[in-house]
Specification:
single chain, about 120 residues, alpha+beta, Alpha-D-Glucose-1,6-Bisphosphate, Chain A, domain 4, five-stranded antiparallel beta sheet, 3 helices, globular
Amino acid sequence: MMAYLRREKETVQVDYPLSKVWVDMGKAIASLEWVVIEKNEGAHMLKVKTKSNFMAYASEFNIQATPLDESSTKVAISAETPVTTITGIFDIGRTSERIETFLLALRRQVAGEDTDSEKKEIE
């Protein structure tokens, strides 16, 4: 069985200051029940591991927030998911979906929306 990494990247602009986005990134990850495996407060960088399931491995995210100006922030996400020739069939698009799931959770946090009633996890 052959294994490889499936990589995806996404960069978005969030119209909130870095201090708010940084706090809300942590809240978004907690709402998804993902695990922070590394945190660099000075660089505003998080390394995160998502959940896995029977037919899909967990993804690892590197998420970095950088200020664009006083009221907006760039959030750059790179994600890797190990796949095999077998799980690769079931995994098509999953890494990208997990990025979108995080961005939706972050959007809800910065907007102050209730995330408990609509928690969504892509497994």
